[in-house]
């Protein structure tokens, strides 16, 4: 048996599971895994069972019985405990991985988004911050891991991995990051060790916290003296263990801040002698070996870091590629160490620094090359004498975007595995923050913050967000004001029950957000997600902020605050005690009932009980026979017959007929039960019963109704008509073609209420019984708690909500998203805003979408790249699938953008005319591309909250900005 076969045999139980299988099983065992980890921390062997020799011929020998010379040298290391092997089999969780024990392909773990490699990195992080973590005692288990064998394996792994161009193209960031953690050349990740040691010290000696914050947030060589001074000042209080920890930190810091030997780079290019990149490195080493001025050294180094990335594919030898990547890491270290020393007294020097730090960030993989190409022209703006305030603001927004994209690259790669481990080891949550703080993006962010402060001063546009630092990172997304308790949620929002009178700060907003008073998010998602559109429509103040901002707001969690976002995007967040009389007056009176919206029912036709062909429906039927989704899609079918699928429409009348049936367990029909509930609610209000109690009563009744609708018998005549519609219109029998069932109520797309995403869509149903059940689920969806709460809050007659259903064949698009026929960020009615994600259902559920401002005068501006690690697929067998996504190319190509321009022009020119409508506003269009063909799925009015936009208070806090004001770039900051 070969050694390879032996490893495979030993790891047979470490079988590969799909992403969905892993996700489904992980939640079950969190408590059990947590107990296992605690046990391993106290076990002198940690996660290991025993130590053996593994010989070249496949034999296994006792630790004191080495492999004989005649069968090869073999390797010695530990074997995993049986429960560790079982944990890998059942949950795809790998603890205490020994590389010499691992098949290279299994470790790369491409089928599971490289989970094993990422777990190895996370394991190393946990060991540095938690005294060895699961090896607290096992780290002294002699012979368990042999460093020379691990390093040899690492070199072998990278020589195998780097043979494939595809790996470098698609996974450059991950591969480069892994080099900091996998042994392969004797280097250590000293930067991470320094941060981890300072954290450990502050945990056991809180007086060290200020220095820890400094080392984590603004590291520089002068920190060594600060730690030495700290030791001297606290000599009397320091115990021997704390002194030992401080000495260890000082040793790490001195090793880390030892200048990188640039002259040695020539010797590192042995495998690159005959390449242009090898010559470029040698020239760099010669020119900069004695350079100490950061304003000279950083630009030269940044240019070379980017060149190395661009040249990697021209070098075919994997060992040479590894050499290049290691040099790139050393150059990143040079930039990271020197960035704090680069002083920028003028605007021009600050813009220069931002540009080169951005370039280095791209070279390090935090941005894709195509993303850098989109923005580098804007960041090169320092090469002139003066800029208008508008042009300078554009530089700021672009650079700020780059900082956010860099953080989102880290999250896109590691968030999944961090979420997995956080379930049983809370300390894992700090891993992503550690990765971001250890990147050049840390200093890029600080420089961008300085530019933001300067522009805020010049434009009189400044935020007033309590007392937090780097306030220029906060930016308003849509205007509004709110008052209530501040709730700061740094982790997953999934288990959070939100309240309509509270203000939430989320790391990631939930896609099914219920009514809230105000919102701010780190992961903005995109400007046209359902959550963002609802907030914009309803005048809910909404802002984006940085990770650092969120952490700084944690201390105000639970405080009552006033929150406002102006029409220009500046943000106010203050404690209740500091509110002005005008601000208090905004909440002195309750919103009058007359300000609510009435669902129009004057023209509704409930007598139509036939299934309709989408071709026979148009915009004039909206609110009469069906909701606006079907009516408007029918209109689009007339305008763009080749870009809209065939479809069926189940009108309001069919739902209403079914609601007249007797409700099981009740003495009345479904319809009577519903109306009795609303009548009883009004009686309760007349008796001065609290609104909370009334709402709870309604929600209980609606739950009963909802469950009854899901079990409702469908009339035989309806089933027959549905089967005929599938055959005649969709061209296949029911059960043979996957379809979407889209809820389409008369409460959507009203003049002042969008209703976006409040009701159910059944994705890609195939089997007849699933389609039948799906119809009833869609009919029940307006009576869910979330849907009811939104419309109860804003509609005068929520009892008159009728659902119709749009049935359309699934299109397994390559990418999909949303078009708004208005520039949301520019405010220009002639511009366009688009947001797309890979796969189906893109952008609407708050994915990190590729977003553009398409300018009317020509050209476009990248607002954000897509950073979703998975994309939705629509298999012909039904349901939804997940496929791994990569970011090395843009979602949209030039042809797609041009087609969207043409589409928007046609919509603006003809839609109102063809529908005889007096609507003059923007439209919200859902669309997708399959093999570069454009498909249209929905169009609706883009509804903004006019009250928030025109509010006198919001206008009063919005400064008047002279965009044409010229800034001479030699101006001192």
TrEMBL record:
Keyword Signal assigned: yes
Top EC category: transferase
Organism listed in the record: Maribacter arenosus
Family according to the record: Belongs to the PEP-utilizing enzyme family.
EC number: 2.7.9.2
Keywords: ATP-binding, Kinase, Magnesium, Metal-binding, Nucleotide-binding, Signal, Transferase
Residue ranges annotated for the Pyruvate phosphate dikinase AMP/ATP-binding domain, each copy included: 625-947
Protein name as it appears in the record: Phosphoenolpyruvate synthase
Keyword Ubl conjugation: no
Signal sequence extent: 1-24
Cofactor: Mg(2+)
Domain of life assignment: Bacteria
The reaction(s) this protein catalyses: pyruvate + ATP + H2O = phosphoenolpyruvate + AMP + phosphate + 2 H(+)
One Pfam family from the record: PPDK_N
Pathway where it operates: Carbohydrate biosynthesis; gluconeogenesis
InterPro entries hit by this protein: ATP_grasp_subdomain_1, PEP_synth, PPDK_AMP/ATP-bd
SUPFAM superfamilies from the UniProt entry: Glutathione synthetase ATP-binding domain-like
Function summary: Catalyzes the phosphorylation of pyruvate to phosphoenolpyruvate.
């Amino acid at each position: 048996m070969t050694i390879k076969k032996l490893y495979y045999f030993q790891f047979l139980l470490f079988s590969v599971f799909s992403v969905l299988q892993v996700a489904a099983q992980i939640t079950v065992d969190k408590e059990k895994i947590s107990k296992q980890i605690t046990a391993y921390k106290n076990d002198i062997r940690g996660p290991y069972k025993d130590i053996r020799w593994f010989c070249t011929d496949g034999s296994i020998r006792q630790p004191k019985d080495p492999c004989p010379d005649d069968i090869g040298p073999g390797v010695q290391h530990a074997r995993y405990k049986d429960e560790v092997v079982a944990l890998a089999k059942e949950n795809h969780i790998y603890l205490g991985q020994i590389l010499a024990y691992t098949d290279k392909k299994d470790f790369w773990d491409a089928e599971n988004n490289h989970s094993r490699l990422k777990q190895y990195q996370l394991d190393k992080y946990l060991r540095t911050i938690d005294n060895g973590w699961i090896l607290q005692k096992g780290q002294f288990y002699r012979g368990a891991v042999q460093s020379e064998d691990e390093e040899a394996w690492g070199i072998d792994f990278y020589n195998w991995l780097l043979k494939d161009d595809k790996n470098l193209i698609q996974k450059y960031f991950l591969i480069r990051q892994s080099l900091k953690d996998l042994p392969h050349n004797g280097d250590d990740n000293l930067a991470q060790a320094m941060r981890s040691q300072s954290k450990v010290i502050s945990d056991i000696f809180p007086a060290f916290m200020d220095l820890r914050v400094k080392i984590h947030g603004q590291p520089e060589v002068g920190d060594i003296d600060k730690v030495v001074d700290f030791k001297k000042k606290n000599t009397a209080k320091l115990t021997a263990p704390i002194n030992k920890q401080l000495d260890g930190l000082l040793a790490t810091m001195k090793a880390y801040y030892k200048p990188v030997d640039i002259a040695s780079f020539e010797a590192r290019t042995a495998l690159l002698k005959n390449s242009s990149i090898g010559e470029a490195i040698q020239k760099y080493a010669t020119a900069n070996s004695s350079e100490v001025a950061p304003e000279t050294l950083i630009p030269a180094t940044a240019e070379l870091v980017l060149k190395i990335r661009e040249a990697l594919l021209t070098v075919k030898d994997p060992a040479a590629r590894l050499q290049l990547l290691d040099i790139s890491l050393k150059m990143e270290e040079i930039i990271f160490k020197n960035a704090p020393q680069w002083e920028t007294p003028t605007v021009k020097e600050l813009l220069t620094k931002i540009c080169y730090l951005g370039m280095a960030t791209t070279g390090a993989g935090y941005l894709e090359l195509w993303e850098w190409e989109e923005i580098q022209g804007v960041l090169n703006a320092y090469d002139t004498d003066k800029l208008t305030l508008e042009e300078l603001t554009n530089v700021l927004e672009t650079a700020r975007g780059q900082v956010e994209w860099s953080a989102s690259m880290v999250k896109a790669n590691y968030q999944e595995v961090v979420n997995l481990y956080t379930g049983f080891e809370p300390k894992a949550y700090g891993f992503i923050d550690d990765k971001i703080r250890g990147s050049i993006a840390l200093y890029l962010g600080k420089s961008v913050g300085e530019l933001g402060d300067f522009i805020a001063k010049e434009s009189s546009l400044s935020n007033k967000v309590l007392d937090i630092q780097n306030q220029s990172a906060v930016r308003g997304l849509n205007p509004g004001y709110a008052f209530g308790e501040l709730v700061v949620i740094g982790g997953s929002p999934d288990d959070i029950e939100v309240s309509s009178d509270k203000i939430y700060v989320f790391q990631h907003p939930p896609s099914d957000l219920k009514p809230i008073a105000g919102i701010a998010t780190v992961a903005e998602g995109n400007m046209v997600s359902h959550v963002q559109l609802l907030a914009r429509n309803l005048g809910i103040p909404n802002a984006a902020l940085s990770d650092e901002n969120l952490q700084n707001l944690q201390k105000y969690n639970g405080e009552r605050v006033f929150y406002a976002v102006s029409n220009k995007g500046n943000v106010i967040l203050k404690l209740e005690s500091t509110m002005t009389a005008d601000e208090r007056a905004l909440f002195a009176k309750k919103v009058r009932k007359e300000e609510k919206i009435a669902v129009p029912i004057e023209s509704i036709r409930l007598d139509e009980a036939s299934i309709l062909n989408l071709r026979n429906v148009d915009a004039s039927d909206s609110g009469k026979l069906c909701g606006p989704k079907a009516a408007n899609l029918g209109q689009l079918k007339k305008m763009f017959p080749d870009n809209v699928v065939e479809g069926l429409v189940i009108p309001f009348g069919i739902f209403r007929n079914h609601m007249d049936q007797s409700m099981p367990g009740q003495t009345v029909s479904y319809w009577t039960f519903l109306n009795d509930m609303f009548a009883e609610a009004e009686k309760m209000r007349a008796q001065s019963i609290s609104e909370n109690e009334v709402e709870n009563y309604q929600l209980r009744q609606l739950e009963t109704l909802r469950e009854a609708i899901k079990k409702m018998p469908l009339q035989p005549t309806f089933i027959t008509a549905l089967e005929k519609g599938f055959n005649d219109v969709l061209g296949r029998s029911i059960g043979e073609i996957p379809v979407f069932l889209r809820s389409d109520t008369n409460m959507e797309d009203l003049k002042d209420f969008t209703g976006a995403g409040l009701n159910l869509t059944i994705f890609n149903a195939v089997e007849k019984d699933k389609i039948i059940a799906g119809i009833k689920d869609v009919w029940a969806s307006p009576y869910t708690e979330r849907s009811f709460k939104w419309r109860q809050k804003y509609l005068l007659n929520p009892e008159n909500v009728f659902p119709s259903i749009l049935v359309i064949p699934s299109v397994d698009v390559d990418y999909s998203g949303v078009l708004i026929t208005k520039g949301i960020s520019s405010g220009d009615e002639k511009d366009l805003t688009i947001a797309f994600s890979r796969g189906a259902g893109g952008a609407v559920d708050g994915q990190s979408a590729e977003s553009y401002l398409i300018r009317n005068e020509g050209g476009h501006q990248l607002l954000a790249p897509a950073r979703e690690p998975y994309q939705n697929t629509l298999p012909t067998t039904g349901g939804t699938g997940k496929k791994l996504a990569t970011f090395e190319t843009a979602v949209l190509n030039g042809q797609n953008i041009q087609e969207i321009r043409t589409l928007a022009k046609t919509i603006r020119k003809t839609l109102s005319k063809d529908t005889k409508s007096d609507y003059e506003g923007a439209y919200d269009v859902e669309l997708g591309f399959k093999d570069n063909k454009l498909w249209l799925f929905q169009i609706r009015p883009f509804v903004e909250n006019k009250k928030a936009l025109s509010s006198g208070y919001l206008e009063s806090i919005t400064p008047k900005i002279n965009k044409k004001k010229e800034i001479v770039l030699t101006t001192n900051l």
